[in-house]
From TrEMBL, chains A, B, C, D:
Task performed by this protein: Catalyzes the hydrolysis of 10-formyltetrahydrofolate (formyl-FH4) to formate and tetrahydrofolate (FH4).
Catalytic activities: (6R)-10-formyltetrahydrofolate + H2O = (6S)-5,6,7,8-tetrahydrofolate + formate + H(+)
Annotated organism of origin: Prosthecobacter debontii
Listed name of the protein: Formyltetrahydrofolate deformylase
Gene (name only): purU
MF-aspect GO terms: formyltetrahydrofolate deformylase activity
Ranges where the ACT domain occurs: 8-75
Active site: D230
SUPFAM superfamilies linked: ACT-like (SSF55021), Formyltransferase (SSF53328)
Amino acid sequence: MPAADTATLLIHCPDRPGLVHDVTGFISSHQGNIIDLQQHIDPAENAFFMRLEWNLEKFTLEKEEIFARLQPMARRHEMQVRLHFASQRKRVALFVTKENHCLYDLLARHEAGELPVDIPLIVANHETLKPAAERFGIPFYHFPITKDNKAAQEAAQIELLKKERIDTVVLARYMQIISPAMIEAFPNQILNIHHSFLPAFVGAKPYHQAHVRGVKIIGATSHYVTADLDEGPIIHQDVMCVSHEDSVQDLVRLGRDLEKTVLAKALWWHVRDQVLVYQNKTVVFD
Amino acid sequence: MPAADTATLLIHCPDRPGLVHDVTGFISSHQGNIIDLQQHIDPAENAFFMRLEWNLEKFTLEKEEIFARLQPMARRHEMQVRLHFASQRKRVALFVTKENHCLYDLLARHEAGELPVDIPLIVANHETLKPAAERFGIPFYHFPITKDNKAAQEAAQIELLKKERIDTVVLARYMQIISPAMIEAFPNQILNIHHSFLPAFVGAKPYHQAHVRGVKIIGATSHYVTADLDEGPIIHQDVMCVSHEDSVQDLVRLGRDLEKTVLAKALWWHVRDQVLVYQNKTVVFD
Amino acid sequence: MPAADTATLLIHCPDRPGLVHDVTGFISSHQGNIIDLQQHIDPAENAFFMRLEWNLEKFTLEKEEIFARLQPMARRHEMQVRLHFASQRKRVALFVTKENHCLYDLLARHEAGELPVDIPLIVANHETLKPAAERFGIPFYHFPITKDNKAAQEAAQIELLKKERIDTVVLARYMQIISPAMIEAFPNQILNIHHSFLPAFVGAKPYHQAHVRGVKIIGATSHYVTADLDEGPIIHQDVMCVSHEDSVQDLVRLGRDLEKTVLAKALWWHVRDQVLVYQNKTVVFD
Amino acid sequence: MPAADTATLLIHCPDRPGLVHDVTGFISSHQGNIIDLQQHIDPAENAFFMRLEWNLEKFTLEKEEIFARLQPMARRHEMQVRLHFASQRKRVALFVTKENHCLYDLLARHEAGELPVDIPLIVANHETLKPAAERFGIPFYHFPITKDNKAAQEAAQIELLKKERIDTVVLARYMQIISPAMIEAFPNQILNIHHSFLPAFVGAKPYHQAHVRGVKIIGATSHYVTADLDEGPIIHQDVMCVSHEDSVQDLVRLGRDLEKTVLAKALWWHVRDQVLVYQNKTVVFD
């Protein structure tokens, strides 16, 4: 017996009395049963945030008409509204370079049925991980990138992604800076994993930087990619303890475990529509 | 300028459509503005849980009449309802024996204004910490306990607590088993800190047990006291890594840091009415 | 340029003055340069533990004669001595059932060159993961197990392991109890991953047990397998926070991340000869 | 029965064969029994680090002559040597401003016998915590600081510290920048607690910075004070998870628990002579 389909609303707007009552009234009046509701107010910004998930089994509106029917309320409260359905699995492209740990981790989760997404393709700027893609039967696209061809290659990548109706791009240790054209094409839909506890050690070789500074904890950060390198909204971070005994190579090795779990968790929240971006920060409804 | 008073509702009932809409309708209809709403459903139990906090500034009902006015809705939905006001600070009694760390930690938080409670008294079965109580100007009551006088002393303790209108009893490393009479007098209002990661190492000398077993992590657990020793609903737990180099004495020393922060956090949630007990488990709205 | 070969000594014996001086004298007198030395004393047991790793580049003894030449000193101090060479990669057999996460995690680490071992074979009691083994080109042996054939199948497994000169058996979510014959054949060489924070939730379905108890933290434990189920020496443990919102299925999903990293870390220490077993506990030299 | 006195050597020098054998030979030849020996090599720097603690009970040298007798070996190997005795308790001055949490935490540990130090005095630039000092019977010195009097007040502080034979200065949330004169007077003996995970959020108001950036984890860092603000050698760090729901005030409140435990742990290692500074980093022998 498959789980019944659900719909998820992500809302933010100026705070005012009666918002929850209004939105839940919309659901109730069409026989929807709320499964999960989380609401958050930022008093300093007078901002209201809500995630609401409801069961569509007995819902009296067709999926196609829900968004339109929400508009009067949305206009009344100046709401920004996103609507998702659990049955519409996100289509995710994985971008990789040479390191295999994030790639295998995501593919293994996908194979085990843990990640409710489709992965139609893997994009890489090196051929190193082509055998990994082939093992899992996922088309592998090689876009070697040089200074000269970078703009053209990215344009080709965007075309490919659009053709494959990709929703979400995951930079699974993709060692290239993403250019503005792609960022604009996928706003808040490109997830990166940075191998430091941001904002410490922005930029290149963060484990080397960490070793020089002598920190006792290293971290990894998953964030949405924006035009400012390593400055996008942070979705998830995690850390582990290290010591003076750990060389740079040890930090690199240990950090891989952080990178793969942090990226996977951020992606989990993203594909379940639990993340709302606001003022370069995230509200993660968990 | 003092913060405006707020009211908090804690509700649980069988799940059915429209619950959130009904409750928020009650608030809206009396001009309350919701500050925080968290709702949780346990599908396996078909149980609905909600915490709702609203601003009383423009609320059109008097505090005294709110609970009565909620009753028709509560009966309709078979709701169990708790109502609290931020302005009614809980009155907390601290129970101690000889160890000072939890006591000083709570008193320092209280003095810094971090804990929104009154602490009218400290109860102890030894006189060791009397100077600590005196330093902070809090009345100290010494109830030496033997096998013979235990029932009588506990009766006297209950009488004292009732006379001082105590809401919450905190066993801050109180090395006595609480008898059923007191548990019944303060249901889900007695917080204990157990010095292990429950349910591992129930009972006496958990650090010794941990050392014998050779665990690599130790923990502390704060729970409500019930008739079953160390079996009450868990409010909070935390852990730290240890190694073969740590003796039992090291575990005792290191564990104190866990004990005091875990107990303080559990108390923080308790006094802010963020904890709901259900089937010997807690729902912590955080 | 390959790293020079190193030798590692693991010693335990009754504590007495001069032990470190004696052992380091042996190394110095043959022109060995110590890379790492860790020593630990358990005063309660008057027990001495040491791990010493040295560079063999200029060492004046042949590898084959080192162990024999150590014997006089070992006898003098009643030492238990283990000697390993980094160049002798351990041969590891992975035992699996149906879940893929630990298997893929170890295979990906191996492919990336992170784990300095050979993996000559995978043993399974179901065929589910045969494709995974095939993708990585590792021979897969299927031993279906029933009550009736269990003893015979285990005997066949032991024979296979001996034939393939296996040093280390990793139960990577292998859902069968290992019988005494195999445990005796591989003393302190069989690593298991148990999906709880032992000694909490010994036995079957630990996540269900954890959910019923309402713990706020779940864990995973890697230990050597002994005749007492889930009672062997603990090598590594880790935990993560959970909440009332997590169903049993959530705990299972979240726990997989613990299981794979805890098992991989325990195996890392094991294959680098950093683990010494003593009185059903481990000394982990890290 | 008091524990026997022990001596601790902290050594660093260029790495070469035979160092451990030489040093342990010195101990053995005078009938010392080694309790703890940890040794670390940084291959990239060819640097050798060692901490060695031995029992003085049967040692045949007087304490006063040990250091001189070590010199020939120290010169031979270009060793930097520190020698400490457990019986010579460090004398610690606590510097505070207005916040009480680190102060009470350290005083409670001291009263419980956990911290093997003397605390002859508390220095403050405000009078807020004078009652706290008085409660614990510790002399409180008030040095109000303005731009104009800062140099003179620090000179007076140094004089006071010298007069009281202070070894270690602990900045327990002391909200003043320490000037070079004091840093030179107490090299690697002034511990600070910075309320961020350094090097993120250097300087003022780190919790505000963290809130603006939207990090999901906050931290605290204890380090030795050097001439570069927040750039000194890191001794210890710890972190905790936060979320979008946490206001700046929540971060401040939550962070206090990190600050007090991180500072206390760093001080614990410092007073037990477990910390060695090298190239603006620490080797912590734990």
